[in-house]
Specification:
The protein is 36% helix and 11% strand. With 222 residues, the chain is α/β, with parallel strands linked by helices. Strands 3-2-1-4-5 form a 5-stranded parallel beta sheet, sandwiched between helices.
Length: 222
């Protein structure tokens, strides 16, 4: 059975991606980052999801990104917006996916895994530049140029199975695969008890997705 490294944030997208990778017969190694995010309760959500879906290994890696600032997700001085805006939102974390994927790539080489999975989406998403198809294609090229595995003819594949799906489609697919969405957390600004704010961009996309999918939203809102 082939191995895969799956980036797992604890949100509904990454939970669905983990379920997809398992359905495809891969042995999944889940990777979560404690990067100084203000919504740290998502780390517990990641633990719950990994335990529920079953993984060969789940690593939560400390990786401080908050020192550089520049994002409402890591800098308490920047408010998480509660109304839609234009352009790239302040919840974008500079170079986050590139940093995360680079570490996942290193772990994949050590494991002998040839598959990387992540839950980015280019339909119902917040406009982040590192969620676009051209970015993913470029990173896969880099991965195979910069690694021993790629140079020795064992190319790595970067999978983003949700890329062209709506949030409703993602929820329907996850439900079909047995994902318990009540274990997940999407909110960028939850309270200390893990209750979602209901107003941030991620909460709005999640609520709209459940409504469009015709399924009850299990989110605990404050």
């Amino acid at each position: 059975m082939a191995d895969a490294v799956v980036l797992l944030s604890g949100g509904l997208d990454s939970a669905t991606v983990l379920a997809i990778a398992r359905e495809e017969g891969l042995t999944c190694h889940a990777l979560t980052f404690d990067y100084g995010q203000r919504h740290r309760v998502e780390l517990e959500a990641a633990r719950r999801v990994a335990a529920s879906l079953g993984v060969a290994d789940h690593r939560i890696v400390p990786l401080a990104l908050g020192w550089m600032g520049g994002s409402a997700l890591t800098d308490p001085a920047i408010a998480v917006p509660k109304t839609p805006g234009e352009g790239i939102p302040v919840t974008y974390v500079p170079a986050r996916n590139t940093v995360f994927l680079s570490i996942a790539l290193g772990w994949a080489e050590v494991l002998g895994a040839r598959h990387l999975y992540l839950g980015v989406n280019a339909v119902d998403y917040s406009g982040y530049p590192d969620c676009r198809p051209e970015y993913l294609e470029a990173f896969e090229r880099l991965a195979n140029l910069a690694t021993r595995a790629g140079v020795e003819g064992r190319p790595l594949r970067l999978h983003a199975p949700l890329l062209h799906m709506t949030k409703a489609d993602i929820i329907a697919r996850g439900a079909l695969l047995g994902v318990d969405f009540s274990l997940t957390l999407s909110c960028y600004d939850p309270d200390g008890e893990g209750r979602a704010c209901g107003g941030c961009d991620s909460c709005r996309l999640r609520a709209h997705g459940f409504a469009e999918a015709g399924r009850p939203d299990p989110t605990c809102y404050r």
